[in-house]
Amino acid sequence: MGLKLDRVIPWGRSMQEYVRMFDLTLDRLPQAILDCGGGPASFNVEMTRKGYKVVSCDPIYQFSADEIAQRIEDTYQTLIKGVEANADSYVWQEILSPEQLGQVRMAAMQQFLADFPLGLQEGRYLTEGLPVLPFNKNQFDLALCSHFLFTYSDRLSEEFHLASILEMSRVAREVRIFPILNISGEVSPLLQPAIDKLEMRGYKLEIRQVAYEFQKGGNQMLRVFPPV
């Protein structure tokens, strides 16, 4: 058994990681991107600087930057120690150690924290969360969900997963979810039931291998296309 967490924690990743996790091609990106459960990732601020349109939504955005920073500090050591205790569950190639992992993640989260007040004012960070989103049908070209659905399979129900994917598919023309492993490193037991129920509703799905792997075996994302 791998890493276990008793709650969803704030843990942010960079634009470079998003590009690889979700197999994004920067010169062919769609016009409007939704990042569901974005947390303290630097994806929004880095993409905004490059002229892309990204909206991130997460209930954590109801808190101030200082409060989010405190929450990161409160959970940081728990996660790093958990990774250290389960080091064999990870691929130590680009990131060479749990200490470096902490440095990489903190660099991304510091970018987010610096941008958060402005992004909140500009409407790039919204406090709503899955499975109910305040957007119109097909308002976005692409909806992304990183390390939330399937990751927390033991915390979020099968019904929550299905409702969340359906809702993302309502507001975006394509949905991408990464990874399809739970936080302990196994393929989520909720993946196949979700696929089966979506296919019964006429959705098209693809599991695609990507050029990113930190959790061992965690190099696949789920793509979901709503019925035409």
UniProtKB/TrEMBL annotation:
Organism lineage: Bacteria, Bacillati, Cyanobacteriota, Cyanophyceae, Oscillatoriophycideae
User: GO MF annotations for this entry?
Assistant: methyltransferase activity
Q: Which Gene3D superfamilies match?
A: Vaccinia Virus protein VP39 (3.40.50.150)
| Protein name from the UniProt record | SAM-dependent methyltransferase
| UniProt superkingdom | Bacteria
Q: Does the keyword Transferase apply?
A: yes
State the Gene Ontology BP annotations.
Answer: methylation
Keyword line: Methyltransferase, Transferase
